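Practice problem: predict the structure.
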Amino acid sequence: MRSIFRRAASLLLSALAISAVHGGPANAADLRIVVPQLPAALDPTITTLGTNWLVAANACEGLTGLDDNWQPQPMLADSWTYDDKALTLTFKLRPGMKFHSGATMTSDDVVASLRRYRDSAGTGAVLKNLTSDVTADGSDTVVLKLTGPTGIIPGLLTLTPAVIMSKAALAGKSATQAVDTIDCTGPYKVTEFQADRQAVLTRSADYKPRAEATSGSAGAKKAPADRLIFLPQAEPSVRRDNVLTGGADIATTLPFDFYADLKANAAVQPVVINDNQSLTAVFNTMKGPMANVALRRAIYHALEMDPIMLAAEGDQAFYVIDPSWVPDRKSVWYSKAGADGFGTPNKDLVKKLLAEAGYKGEALRWLTSKDFYQGHYLPALTAQQQLEEYGIKIDLQVMPAATYIQTRSDADKFDIFSSFLPTYVDPVVIPYLNATYPGFWSDPKKEELVKKLATTSDQAARVAIWADIQKLVYDQVPYIKFGTEASFSIARKGVGDLTTSPANTQVFYNVVPVAK
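Answer:
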């Protein structure tokens, strides 16, 4: 009886929490989405953390969009062409596209956005290495001058940090300074934002959808809801209960411990996306004890990946012990190169490597956050327990997501941090490969291979180069993969057009609210 009362109280508090957040019941045409957290700032260019791109991914667009087959398609660009020597890439823009401010998009806006993106960390630095300049040629044409032949730029520009914002909104803002307003062209515009409370996106009356069929973040965007309302709630059970009570329409990032009960509940529908992302840990290769490759190898060979992934997911049906650094098995870049013995500890080798590293039992600072409970904290906690068996001490530093993001950027403040990695359109743009990404892996052979991958046009040759890069990752161990997880969300019965593709897990603008 007590458990029934506790359950009823939980449901009531969840409903009251949602009501308090937005002042009452949802309008029938609203879509309320409960997420673990909202970004501190909406500007996607200033951060390398993919979870901070959520709101912008639903309000903004780039020159290109990623379809469900991981291929770039036209979005704000109508077309693109290379010159005869593949040293110039020219984009023709869609005419008459309006920013949310009401201004018409021109090439000046695109140039300002891409130049700022070039100066950002992570994938922006990749674009900077591949281009010498970005210029306008009239009001509807943008020209990228390339440093050499490359075919990856249309794919690179599908990423959320490369979205196009108005030149006016970007005025005076560097790549590390958040804009005051994300003035974009997408189907919904931000009309309210409080990082600890809610983000409200209202349908843009001026939006012009493309004529092509919807696929991933490409093609037509339907915007069937009047508003998308994103509500932050760190506790997974509260996110679940908000949907069960009807106070929200979708709850994202739920633990699979909930799956069996929710599948049997007629009020909701589970949404499982397989091969969603890799769960990982990243080492500080620049400073401190983890700059020692022997210690990194020791930790890798000490870990048994199945218990780590089981702790994260709670059910073996929702993860695979898979070493590929491109997790979606449908991708041409999926590979097991270099990962012999992946997931199984080698005690004798660990002992040898610890001696080689000269490890004396000093505590290693591992940053993690319960805001990413399933993907960050639980794997780190399980790894900590496994490593203690070898005398490897882990100082597990649990902190809010915003603090974690800030702390991991300072090489003096961490040795390891929890992370995750989705499939990218091209391995060149994987943030971990960039020496500016926290972890700061800088290696001449890696730089040479990545440059070769970026400047080779033959697809079979590029796949072989990527295999060599993955072999180097498993040799030098700048970061560790535990396995590939599915993702799990739920929606109220009647919510329509939910995605099950890893290519567009943050997209909600096509989702249809429950009918009256």
